[in-house]
Amino acid sequence: xxxxxxxxxxxxxxxxxxxxxxxxxxxxxxxxxxxxxxxxxxxxxxxxxxxxxxxxxxxxxxxxxxxxxxxxxxxxxxxxxxxxxxxxxxxxxxxxxxxxxxxxxxxxxxxxxxxxxxxxxxxxxxxxxxxxxxxxxxxxxxxxxxxxxxxxxxxxxxxxxxxxxxxxxxxxxxxxxxxxxxxxxxxxxxxxxxxxxxxxxxxxxxxxxxxxxxxxxxxxxxxxxxxxxxxxxxxxxxxxxxxxxxxxxxxxxxxxxxxxxxxxxxxxxxxxxxxxxxxxxxxxxxxxxxxxxxxxxxxxxxxxxxxxxxxxxxxxxxxxxxxxxxxxxxxxxxxxxxxxxxxxxxxxxxxxxxxxxxxxxxxxxxxxxxxxxxxxxxxxxxxxxxxxxxxxxxxxxxxxxxxxxxxxxxxxxxxxxxxxxxxxxxxx
Length: 428
Description:
- The protein contains 17 helices and nine strands.
- It is of the alpha+beta class.
- The longest helix has 37 residues, at 167-203.
- 52% of the residues lie in helices and 15% in strands.
- Strands 1, 2, 3, 4, 5, 6, 7, 8 and 9 form a nine-stranded mixed beta sheet that branches.
- Helix 4 packs parallel to helix 11 (207-219) and helix 7 crosses helix 8.
- Strand 8 and strand 9 (406-413) form a beta hairpin.
- It has helices at 3-9, 18-26, 53-58, 69-81, 86-95, 101-107, 115-122, 126-135, 149-165, 167-203, 207-219, 221-245, 267-271, 276-296, 316-329, 357-368, 378-384; strands at residues 247-248, 254-265, 300-305, 308-313, 337-350, 353-355, 374-376, 389-397, 406-413.
């Protein structure tokens, strides 16, 4: 067998390669907590000694004649007080804003390793580790010092978990995890820029104040990680219960469910007329109200795409109630009007998402609905039969991708029915 093929054929190892581990560990000098090994460490004779403005000026970090010189000196002295060297400041200043240095070091503590070094310590082929890091959304060049000791633990956990589920299925799940974590990370960074740094810059601030705010934000990540851990456990319990109650389809990949799409008519022309801030607030308002309506109605929000929401439920009645609730949410908005569609049948479940002809049907019907209308298929009307819902025939339509005309109905609340889904009161 050729060496390359032999390497690809090896399974994930569980132990460490001692020689490789010693070689990797010897490549790094001991560092104090909070400083990556590839940044310069202050000589022992300089640790704890105050550097003077002339040192900063000689390093090109400070110009006493420049505007904001006093603020820059304040930042430099604050960084030096945290044990950072001039060399580290120069390197950071070349990469980006110097005010971000303390936060960057707090976020990436300890020595950093290349992919090859982590693979050697974990006793696994480097190309297999590259496959794992790519799956979780952290690709790295072979010579890039991106990973800490925690990536060694990740590779070992993967090997143990793959023994239960298989490597390919587990990599599929990890791609979902990576995409979700990337989404969460960007949302968290955006939160800082919108609610902290942006307002600080607008009212006037110093480099040191920005540095302190960034450091506090990074130090708060542990609280967010804890919240994610707790909420993930709760979501796992809910997902397990949901799958136990599902009516499975013809294979383990499918289940009988109802899928819905709701979007906002008028959003596209509105987007070209309003400011970026107003548009962002409109999207946030839609996403918040859509999320709350779906979750409160017992559904699962699958995805949000600008002005459109996709959700699924285990029963058609709940889907109708959620769809009508979303239509009601924006009924009084003069700028945009909701519309949508529901379809029921066998859905393909894959990686936390849903696919198949029924999903395509619901998406196509949503495009046909007029503002304020919720279209449904006969399967939805049959399964959702409830006294608080009223279904009216809406003819047949030819849809792209479907060979036969599709019968449609509209769904509304019956006269006297409340928005909560209760039936109209009978004779007293």
